[in-house]
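Methods — Computational structure assignment.
A single polypeptide chain was analysed. Its primary sequence is given first, followed by the predicted tertiary structure written as structure tokens.
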Amino acid sequence: MPEGAQLRICFIGDSFVQGIGDPEYRGWVGRVLEATGGGITAFNLGIRRNTSEDVLRRCRQEILARSVPDADNRLVISCGSNDTLEEDGKIRVDPSDSLHNLAAILDQCRHSGIAPLVGSRPAEWCKSWSPRDPVSAG
């Protein structure tokens, strides 16, 4: 990437990315951006209740629509919490399928020239998070 290239970051995932449950409506994405001091074009693409299947389904189209040639295009991926939730007596997404979905997203990044970073929600949220809590469930 040329020096001085515009930094563009897409954050994609579930409600933890979106910021649901944050009384300031910023979530961890907003706090990360605030800490950088600006100069970044960012897109929060978190959607409540999205599984890794949902993220995979929409990732390529959403990211490419926000990427710019000659920019430093990056992607932060944080999903999987909803994969582990039970609905109607079964887990929403099988763990092996979750891994496959993430691998497919990373493969899309590689083919599109977009630098990915995979992360989870911040650790302090894990202490109080409950899958039965409808506000905190991703």
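Note: The two ends are 34 Å apart (CA to CA).
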